[in-house]
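Model it.
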Amino acid sequence: MTAVRTVLGDVPAAALGQVDAHDHLFFRSARFPPGQELDDPGAAADELRAFAALGGGTVVQWTPYGLGRGSALLPEVSRAAGVHVVAATGLHQAAHYPPGTVERVLAGGLAGLFIGELTEGLLAGESGAEGDARLPHRAGMVKVAGSFHTLDRHARTVMAAAAEAHHATGAPIGVHLEHGSAALDVLDLLCGQLGVSAGRVLLGHLNRFPEPRVHREAAERGAYLCFDGPSRANQATDWRLLDVLTALVDAGHGERLLLGGDTTTAGARAATDGGPGIPYLLAGLRPRLERELGRETVELLFRANPARAFAVDWRGRA
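Modeled.
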């Protein structure tokens, strides 16, 4: 039987409820200004409670290894808010890490790191140093990242390791597309060369690259298209989002669509009055989508699609 691997254990896909398919409760990056880290467990729990009050059931955190993903805190926050949380293993672009981290992680064996976090438990440490403590809860997906309109050597190395981890575990692979670009290059590599089923690939940030032909081809190949960060008008989101989603639904690709908030900084949280944060998906976006697409289609986007996208048959894989 398939299940979604959360930080509180494996959950039947049908029990996820409404899903924020791409967001962050904890996150830090060398590219972000000081003070914008997501590192406050109280604020994370408040964000989840607000999401739950609107009918939210699950948040998928795409923060990968080494970026302050709050590995030890996620079960506590999930339990306190009554919301399922799916954690990620994986590796982001090298520019997000402090000097030396990526080199240490690569030297330790990338595929082994990913597989261990999917099947044994998340590592508590974030530095790539030896001796990291193994936590009892596990990741439910792998997060990787492309580069702007191309796939550099780092991206190809990480994606090859992610494909190996996928073949060993069945876990889905979520892909940060830089400004939404290089989606088809990612599918050429992961699916064409590395043998990953397109239905196990989740392409993130396509809202930032509203090219309908690329969207249609990616959907036709069978990948999931994740439209995340719907409040960021400076990244071609709100003002194009409904048109883009409507076009894909009309073209018969409604079952390939996912929605997420992608809250990456403290100032973007609803809980800190910056907003709009995780609750916006249900408080702001969902009513507009229902008027445009109808309730049945919106239920598909928030419930049925993520239930399929993140479900894995973990039997025999720990």
